[in-house]
Amino acid sequence: MANIKDVARMAGVSIATVSRVLNEYPHVAKDKQEKVLAVMKELNYSVNGNAVKLSKGKTNTIGVIVPYNNNSCYDELINGILKKAHELHYQVLLLPSYYENVIESSYLTLLKKKMIDGLLLTSHTLHPEQIKALAEWGKIVCCDACPIELVPSVFPDRFAAYIEVFTYLKNKGYKRIHFTSGRDSQSSPSTRLRIQAYQEIITEAYESQFFDQCFDFQDGKRVGGIMFRNSIVPDAIFTNGDEVAAGIIASAQTHGYSYPQDFEIIGEENTPLSEILGFPSVDYHQTAIGEQAVSLLLSDEYARIQIRHQLNFRARTEASALS
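Now predict its structure.
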């Protein structure tokens, strides 16, 4: 296999001249440039992309640790990341973790080895000490509130959203208010905030009203079966996703109940599902968070940017029910 020395020898130029041609430097004589390109074609010489990136001191690639992508929240976030990265001529390396700390930790070496120019952290299990150690090797940006002040982040104020939703439900006069989350309170900061907000506003024990491990439509159907199997059904339910809310609505129907006649429900992420089924949903503007996170990562700025949420209400009709 031909190398850069072979090209230089056959073209009758220095290795430095070949390197300038490869990197498209402007100040190379046209005849030498043409000779080098001709020899490269003759030898079927291909550039070592890793070597070129190493010589330039950057890879034009950013890494994104994400638990999974079959979720509307992460789909919107990734969409924003990809859009902005494309605008800035960067590639994106998606690093799925499935909330396994060992896997997330292994991805940190990509930054340490300079295989990526920066790292975005979405939802993860990394401890503050791990993030702090990682930040010594290169720039990272959290797409949620980071516990380390010196680490830049772009994030929604989830606690303010939870307070707003539970206050709304309480002011409506609802007494039996249930809520769902993804991970349990031991592993998820957002779940702990959800419980804290519930306790501050509703001021009642939450154990019988709280259901974790809810991630998608099927999980919604599962917890809906528990909620509507008893004679005392909830007045209102605050879910951690529109898919979960849709699953609960479907499950309610199988037990003889219907939305919005028999209960209130509020979702998250403001997807088309909430519009079709006519239930309110919290919009965290994840696409905007993804875009701003990439811009922040590739800049010299170290900021903590908070994105305001929006609680969107829908017109409720009989068509809200799933058939």
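The chain has three domains: 4-55, 59-155+286-307, 158-284+312-320.
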